[in-house]
Specification:
The protein is built from 5 helices and 4 strands. The chain has about 160 residues and is α+β, with helices and mostly antiparallel strands. The chain has one domain: Gyrase A, domain 2 (2-Layer Sandwich). The radius of gyration is 15 Å and the shape is globular.
Length: about 160
């Protein structure tokens, strides 16, 4: 059985950031790595759940909404997957940053009512906003070379 692309990455060396993971059926997968894997610092379940709701809402209402296929959490609680269609690396990066900025303005977690969510009791708006702010700061500090390498990887995979 073949390993999926995310399992082929060396998680002991993977750093927080914005990583291109690959294409499948024309859909690009991006790894929004909030935390360093296997380092003992994970997103809390409630904050993770709220970030999922907030980012999915912001992305699906943002400038690139027609290109957003999916946004969801990693089971390891170190980040999220963003799936896009017909979107360049730079536009996916811009969409993520804009969504993080939108999350800072939320006064409540979207879709967190009982009738809207299968685990409505497990949300943390303040924690999610703090995680989004920290991740946005990380994205703003990424070296140009790191972004160029991810952009090149995406171009090479086409």
């Amino acid at each position: 059985m073949d390993k999926i692309p995310s399992f082929q990455k060396d998680h002991d060396n993977l750093q927080p950031g914005f990583h291109f993971s690959g294409y499948n059926c024309g859909v690009a997968t991006f790894d929004l790595r909030f935390k360093k894997p296997n380092a003992g610092d994970f997103l809390s379940p409630a904050a993770l759940h709220s970030v999922e709701h907030m980012m999915a809402t912001a992305l699906r209402n943002g400038a690139f909404r027609e290109h957003i296929v999916y946004f969801g959490p990693m089971g390891c609680r170190t980040g999220f997957y963003l799936l896009t269609a017909d979107l360049s690396f730079d536009d996916a990066f811009a969409a993520a940053k804009a969504a993080l900025e939108a999350c800072a303005r939320f006064d409540a977690v979207p879709g967190a009512e009982r009738r809207e969510c299968g685990n409505y009791l497990e949300h943390d708006l303040a924690g999610a906003k703090a995680e989004c702010a920290a991740y946005r700061a990380l994205l703003c500090s990424l070296p140009a070379e790191a972004l160029a390498a991810e952009r090149a990887a995406m171009e090479a995979a086409k």
